[in-house]
Amino acid sequence: MTFEPTLDFARQLDAQDPLHEFRQQFHIPPGPNGQECLYFCGNSLGLQPRTARAAAEQQFTNWQNLAVEGHFRGDSPWMNFHESLAGPSARIVGAKPVEVVVMNNLTTNLHLLLVSFYQPTATRYKVLMEGGAFPSDQYALETQVKLHGRQPDDAIVELTPRPGEHTLRTEDILAKIEELGESLATVIMGGINYYTGQVYDMAAITRAGHAVGAKVGFDLAHAAGNIPLHLHDWDVDFACWCTYKYLNSGPGGVAGAFVHERYADQPELLRLAGWWGYDETERFKMRKGFRPMRGAAGWQLSNGAILTMAVHQAALALHDAAGGMEALRRKSELLTGYLEFLITRLGLSKSQLEIITPADPAQRGCQLSLLVHQNGRDLFEHLMAVGVIGDWREPNVIRLAPVPLYNTFEDVYRVGEVLAEWASRQQPVQA
Ligand SMILES: *Cc1c(COP(=O)(O)O)cnc(C)c1O
């Protein structure tokens, strides 16, 4: 598509957008002038669906009226509530329902899955991850390695971009996997890097990892609800994600986990167990000796956090109503492409501002990461002051994510206007 830098053009795209009405399903926070803000931070916390409060309210009512009986009675018995989330979650990540469970929080799920999928031996004990991974992932791996009596410096191998580049090349990732060979126990990477917005080639990485006998998993915090995923077909071993970013399920909301179907009937696969992962037909016999449920459900520890699960259920229903990830992706590529077009037009030099997110749409999701070499903090504060909500990542990156469920082309146009006004006040940098 040939983009045009005009409000008319943006409004025309909105008029043609089959998902345009979905914005009405969300609460858009007010900006400084009392009008709706320009929200570009769905990569950090998705907006509240208008259906969320009633969904939680319903469970408050059930609790009020049914108390302990709510586990077995009412419109959505709590005993089985998590089962209702497996189907919609599986559609988000490209899995079979038996491969998915909704439980805990993201970092907790990462630890639980690593117990099963990072089982180092004397010779095969290395972990491959992206350098500068999200801190929680770094700390999780560091302490998992220590749990096995290993030194993080020795066991953890980090991938870094080539000098002068900001993102990883797939060929370099694959070469490192091959080089580590039989010493490699587990590959764990983001599906999308939180800082640069780069999408990794999960299918190729999984194939390469399996070729050397390693397990391969992904942290999908920035990928779930952002890009189409095919975890089952890609043959990924395990994955986890949070639901408060692109899945709009509320701050600290319940998270997801994926375990490939080939492990569904391996009760002997080591895991940390709890009663909710126990074979549900026998759970209440309270016997000694752990016998897991089939599939990902066998990794559950505790009975479900119903209030946040109810919100998640309402949010997932919106993704389904919008036509799923393929429909969202079509709009997302255009929205992000339009933002890129408007930023590129500013005519700022690379030594002032550069987009470090890959230009190839196949290698990115919603988010663009702007590396602002000159007056970055000033730009960020200017954006916030005029009601553009993005986020700031040290040392000098601004992340902006137009989200297809609730952002409009007009939102993107207006951010472009704010950026253009700021850019016009910048001194050209001496070469
Ligand atoms: C957002 C995010 C987290 C957050 O972890 P929580 O356990 O949900 O607090 C972890 N890892 C990545 C890659 C993230 O983007």
From TrEMBL:
Q: Which residues get modified to N6-(pyridoxal phosphate)lysine?
A: K245
Alphabetically sorted, this entry's keywords are:
Hydrolase, Pyridine nucleotide biosynthesis, Pyridoxal phosphate
Name the domain of life: Bacteria
Which residues participate in pyridoxal 5'-phosphate binding? L106, T107, F134, P135, S136, D137, D219, H222, Y244, W275, N303
Could you give a single Gene Ontology term from the biological process aspect? Answer: L-kynurenine catabolic process
Keyword Hydrolase carried by entry: yes
Family under the similarity heading: Belongs to the kynureninase family.
Q: What's this chain's function?
A: Catalyzes the cleavage of L-kynurenine (L-Kyn) and L-3-hydroxykynurenine (L-3OHKyn) into anthranilic acid (AA) and 3-hydroxyanthranilic acid (3-OHAA), respectively.
Q: What is this protein called?
A: Kynureninase
What gene makes this protein? kynU
